[in-house]
Amino acid sequence: MIRPVPAMRVQVRNDAPVRSGRSYVLYWMIAARRTRYSYGLQRALWWAQQLKRPLVVLEALRVGYPWASDRIHRFVLDGMADNRRALTEAGIAVHSYVERAPGEGRGLLDALAQDACVVVTDRYPCFFLPRMVEAAAARLPVHLEAVDSNGILPLAAADRAFPTAHSFRRHLQKTLRPHLAAFPMPDPLAVAPFARGAALSPEIAQRWPDGVDVSCEALPIDHSVAPVSTRGGSAAGEAAAARFLRQRLDRYGDERNHPDAHAASGLSPYLHFGHLSAHQVVDAVLQQEDWDPERLAPTASGSRGGWWGLSPSAEGFLDELITWRELGYVFCDQVPDYDRYERLPDWALQTLAEHAADRRPHVYDLDTLDRAATHDPIWNAAQRQLREEGRIHNYLRMLWGKKILHWTPGPRDALAVMIELNNRYALDGRDPNSYSGIFWVLGRFDRAWGPERPIFGKVRYMTSDSTRRKLRLSGYLERWGA
C-alpha cells in the first residue's frame, strides 16, 4: 500500500477538479528526478491507488533554459535514463522527452493532461521552475498539485526567511522532530502493481518522440561547456553517497575544509538535480550511527553540535546537508526575487554602497576571470576546477567569491560575475544552495565584521594568503594550478 504524503508537503495549484473518469494519473517529474524517496512520486501513486487508475510519468528536458550546455544536459540525461529503466521495469508508463529545438515541446504536458484524472508535479523554489508550474496551473483544466520533496523540513513549516544559519537552526531544532518520523517511502514502485499498464495515444508519441538516446552535439545548446567525467543519475548518486559514508564521513568534521584531504561529500550535484534525496542520505547517516530519536537534545539552542546526539563528524555533515542547504531553500521560497542585489540585508547594502567607489588593487573583466588568468594562483586553481570538473572545493568557493568582490568594479558587478560563472559551469548551480553561497559573499546569512576595510566595508574579509596558511592544498595546486 502507498502511504499518504504529509499534507504540509502538498500544495494545490489550481481550482480545477479531479477528473476521476479519465484514463490515468499523470506525474510531471521536474525537480525530484528519481524513483526512490520521492514524495512527488509517492503522491502520484497514492492518487492512482485511490482512483484505481494506472500511472503515467512525464520527464522532459527542454533546450531553451538559461545556461543550457552539454555539461548540464549530459548529467540530466544520465538521470533520465536511470528513471526510464526503473519505471519500465516496474511496468509504469513513462514518456522521456528531449526537446530538439526551442519550443518544440510546447503542448506536450497539455496533451497528456487531456486524459489525466489529476496531475502531480514537484514543488521547487528556484530557477525557472516556479514560473513554469504557475503557467501550467493557470491553463490546465484538471487538478494540479505540487509536492515538496526538497528537504527534511517541509517548506510550508517556515513562515519567513531567516537572516542567519543560527536563527534557522533554532527553528529546525524546535520543529523538526515530527518530520523525522514521516520520511518518504524508500521504494514506492515496489508496492504499486496497480499503477501499471497505461497506454498513451499514438499522436503524442508521433509528435513528441520518446527517448533519451540523444547526442548533445546536435542540440542548440552551449557546446563550449563540455560534460564532466562525473556521471549523473540516481545510480551514480546513491553510489557516491555510499562511498562517502563508508570512506569519508568519519573524517568530515576535521578535514572537509582541506582540499588535499578529499573529505567533502561530492553529493551536491545529485541533490540539485533531484537524482538523490536528502531523506535517503539522512536515513543512511542515522542508520550508520545507530541513532534513535531519544538522543535528540531536549532544547533548541541553535548550536551547531550536540542536538542530534551523533558523532561530531555526522553532526557537522547534517548541519551542512540540512541547516545550510535548507536555509537557502526557505529563503528562495519566501523571497521570489532572491537573486536580486537589493535582497541583501540592509547592513550589507549600506556598507557595500559606502565602499563601492574604493580603489581596487586589480580589476578583471568577465573574460579574464572566466579564463582563470588572474595574478592569484589559488583563485586560478579554483576557477580551473570549476571549468573542468563543474565544482569548486567548498572552502575555496568562499574565497573564489570574495576575490571576485575584491577585483570587480563594484559589488553589483561582482554579483553578476559570480552568478554567470557559477551557473554556467557548476553542476550544482542554479540552485537555492548555490545562491546562498554567492550571496553569502556579499553578506547574506552573515553579520557585520570589523575592522571596516576598503572595498569590503563590514562584509567578512578573506585573503588567499590566509587561506594558504590555514589549509593543506599543495596537492590541489599541483592538480589545478597549471
Care to describe what's here?
It is a single chain. This protein has 482 residues and is of the alpha/beta class. Helix content is 43%, strand content 7%. The chain is built from 19 helices and six strands. Strands 1-6-5-2-3-4 form a six-stranded mixed beta sheet, with helices on both faces. Helix 11 packs across helix 17, helix 14 packs across helix 15 and helix 15 runs antiparallel to helix 16. The model has no long low-confidence stretch (mean pLDDT 97).
Low-confidence stretches: none
CATH class of the largest domain: Alpha Beta
Main sheet: strands, sense, barrel: 6 strands, mixed
Number of domains: 3
Class derived from helix and strand content: alpha/beta
Over all CA atoms, what is the radius of gyration? 23 Å
What average pLDDT do the residues reach? 97
Q: What is the succession of H and E elements?
A: EEHEHEHEHEHHHHHHHHHHHHHHH
Q: How do the strands of the widest beta sheet line up side by side?
A: 1-6-5-2-3-4
* Individual helix count: 19
Helical fraction equals: 40-55%
Total number of beta strands: 6
CA-CA gap between termini: 57 Å
Q: Strand content of the residues, in percent?
A: 5-15%
Report a brief summary of the structure.
This protein is an alpha/beta fold. Helices cover 43% and strands 7% of the residues.
